[in-house]
Amino acid sequence: MDGALDPGAHRTPRHPAWRDVDEATWRDWRWQLRHRVTSEEHLGELIALTESERRGLRGRAEAFPMAVTPYYLSLFGDARCPVRRQAVPLAAELEREPWDMRDPLAEEEHSPVPILSHRYPDRALMYVSHSCPVYCRHCTRQRKVGDVASAPAAAELEAAVDYLRATPKIKDVLLSGGDPLSLSDDKLVRVVEMVRAVSSVEVIRLCTRNPVTLPFRLTSALLQRLRAFHPIFVSTHFNHPSECTPEAGEALNRLADAGFNVGNQMVLLAGINDDAMIVERLNRWLVRHRCRPYYMFQCDPVAGTAHLRTPIATGLAILDALRGRVSGLAIPQFAVDLPGGGGKVTLSPDRVVRVDGDRWIFRDFKGEQFTYVDRPRRRLDVIS
Ligand SMILES: *Cc1c(COP(=O)(O)O)cnc(C)c1O
Ligand code: SF4
To answer: How many CB atoms lie within 10 A of CB 364?
Structure first.
């Protein structure tokens, strides 16, 4: 239990199955993890499953199973619900397209040691856990997550930290997975401590979806221990305003109050959040909770996610609709992680109407045109 919380003050309505659980138990993250719903049979007792969901659950039980916390399941509505669609597989997950891949970002080719990917000169990503409270149907790392047996061993962790020590150009270390917050407080603090002890590492990033799927995991006790290793940035993953509950808001506030700089990485998902109004509502809520929209990702071509992918033009149209109308703080960068391992590229809507010699003609957010007269670079001696 988290003493800083005021139980009962802010509550998301629970699924009736857990109505009688007392508030302290409900907010105990270990209780939430122990009571995750992981079988078709159990889920079918809680919600009216569609035929497509039943086929998806059966067809994916081996390769990428379902798991949902009671908290996240309590946000479910009908079969079109954006929260339910992120957690319960559909029959469409069994379909394959020729360009689908198992490891679209070629993370395994960029792994100098088993639990570390080193793609950019100054950054590295470590996989410190292979489980998550909820398995997101669009997950890029579905080849890894859910496989509890593949959790990294102490020797692998040591090898990754040795690599960081031997590679001082790495300044920014992402702790990812799976979800690093699936580790116990002691294990997580130990990992952070080991990375922080590498003198060339400047910034640590904790990549976690727990604020969305299990906000009670972000206890004041854990944050107090972690803040000793600042600067730590947190990357989280809200995708829809229906996930923006009082409990999630409290978790973001606790993070910000404890000095964490929090950013959001959403993934564009067809029929879930591929709409400018939805992204605007989500991002305004995030900024109010001191979480900065960082990336809006094009969905990676992972096998089983074809039905969730949107056209690249959709992401551009959403950014075009936001720019000018919405605070720049609420506008993320639109990124495509290049299949095959090229890394991320960002795209923005084209505001240049044409270039006539040194005259650049732009269109503003209302569609009006404006000219900027360009000049060659001047030498500094114009000052004297
Ligand atoms: C995304 C990613 C990063 C971080 O990239 P930023 O653009 O700095 O957020 C680092 N390493 C790997 C392997 C990544 O996939
Ligand atoms: S929390 Fe992240 S790693 Fe875990 S299933 Fe969701 S997208 Fe994948």
So the answer is: 11
